[in-house]
Amino acid sequence: MDINYTNRVFAIQNTLDRIGELSLLDKGWFDSDHGEFINITAVCNAKYLLTQLILDYPSLPAPRVYPTPEGGLQAEWTIKDTWALEVVFSHSGIISNFEATNVVTGENREYEIGFTALHAISRNMPYFLSSLS
Fold first, then answer.
1. Nearest of 83, 42, 92 to residue 65 by alpha carbon
2. SS (H, E, C) the chain
3. Residue 36: which CATH number?
4. pLDDT per position as a tens digit, 15-65
């Protein structure tokens, strides 16, 4: 289902607000002993990439964004009610994981990605989405 421009604007704002909330987490947020501050590079890279994906791919639902105990961020989508897509921004801001899991069959597709991958993910999203049949 395509979302119109207004919905994309709201999706971007909600995503950026969520990232902003997570960036304010105190050390120890996970269980008082674990849970690092969210790294500013992870915040900036997540804001950039997730905004770009929402703008460029209106059929992609807005992501759900969560903190990682190591101080990074994780974005998740459900695609076609079958695939769970996940992008992890490590504490250093590098995209450490880009993975799709078929929630019906358990099939897992993991893409190894490095620092320069922000543009690569955005450019290759049609390929990634079309491969999730």
1. 42
2. CCCCHHHHHHHHHHHHHHHHHHHCCCCCCCCCCCCCCCCHHHHHHHHHHHHHHHHHCCCCCCCEEEECCCCCEEEEEEECCCEEEEEEECCCCCEEEEEEEECCCCCEEEECCCCCHHHHHHHHHHHHHHCCC
3. 3.10.450
4. 999 999 999 999 999 988 889 999 999 999 999 999 988 988 888 889 999
Q: What is the mean pLDDT of residues 79-107?
A: 88
Model confidence over 65-84: pLDDT tens digits?
999 999 999 999 998 889 99
Amino acid identity, position 35: G
The pLDDT, as a whole number, for residue 67 is 97
Structural domain count, the chain: 1
Whether 121 and 56 have beta carbons less than 8 Å apart is answered as: no
The residue segments making up the domain with residue 65 are 5-130
